[in-house]
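Co-fold these.
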Amino acid sequence: MNIDEKIALIQEVGEEIVTEEDLRKLFESDEPLITYDGFEPSGQMHIAQGIIRAINTNIFIKTGFTFRMWVADWFAYLNNKMGGDLKKIQTVGKYFIEIWRASGMDLEHTEFLWTSDFIEDGEYWKTIMRIAKTTSLNRILRTVEIMGRNERETLSAAQIIYPCMQTADIFYTMQARVTQLGMDQRKVNMLAREIGEELGFWKPVVVSNHMLMGLNAPPKDIQDPVERAIAMKMSKSMPDSAIFMTDTTKDIERKIQKAYCPEGEIKHNPILEYCKYIIFRAHYLKGQENILKDGFLVKRPAKFGGDVSYQTYEEVEKAFAEKTLFPLDLKNAVAQYIDRLITPVRKHFTENKEAAQLLKQVQSFRITR
RNA sequence: CCAGGGGUGGCGGAGCGGCCAAUCGCAGCAGACUGUAAAUCUGCCGGGUUUAUCCCUACGGGAGUUCGAAUCUCUCCCCCUGGACCA
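Predicted complex below.
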């Protein structure tokens, strides 16, 4: 695979790449190809965190990267997830890893690292403090959206430490030359680009992936594009806006059935989004290589035109825009494909005893925002 | 620590001694309308039930005043704004 092909693949991951030139230089250099994503273990895992993460991870690995997954247990603690109970958070962390294991993520080239293994590392804290010293308080305050918070709500002092830690991770714990997180995390990554070299590190390439929409109707009253995307994203605090990795077939059908999906509307349409970002990229998952071997199949009653299949996402989108593909028919197909992608996960959590035990524990925890 | 302002149902936010299980908005649920959803309209929306002018639990915690308190008093806790202290 040559560099152009690698970049093309990474373009499939990144809704935004800052910058492509830097990425090319990285491929040309002998710097270690390490990228990372971090996650706060909290509550259940939805398909944006599960399937999309696995797909993007696998794509990066294809281009020669090692993917580091930062199990950010102490971050979840700072951000008061799971009631601030570190034990529970760690249980959820293990549970998350089990989900990815079952979902087709390439674990051979993925490393899971836990914040708790670094929390007593003095060098880590030195890095955090150096970052804190180089950055103004207001600059940190502007990054609070990375924690799913806004500047209006009352923050704890811990939430000042958090972004500094996250920046330190890029350079110290993860050693990441590329950061591969969601669009909602871009502000910290940009901060890292700004101060990295000044602190004697490097300027990481920021590959930000698209935030998958929730199933509900999008809000009409938010102008700012980033705020809007965050408001629209799949959210655990609204369980019916998200499909979880362990949902039953019935749950999936019900949620998709009630999802927002105006006929002919290709913008801000969650069902189409799931086609584009999940189903048409699912072949990157281990065990799902042949998912669209016969195209994307939509079954429908004869009186509505009978079964059809589409080879590319563009064909689906075009048919939908022209209203030759009706929302309900699309929904049924999407539900079926997503169910298929989740089946191995469900299976893992029923057949594997330890995994089943983890699931049971996680379900017993009360979720706090 | 001081001064002032607050803490009400999932959220926002009224009420300020009885007519308060608590106006209203959002969210949620159900139905009508659509071959999906949304929008719109209707009903429900603390819990229970024999669905009722019934019971229980509730307005940050506790104690009290009163025939009666979300509403008054005391006390404790927490939050916000400002100040004082450290300097």
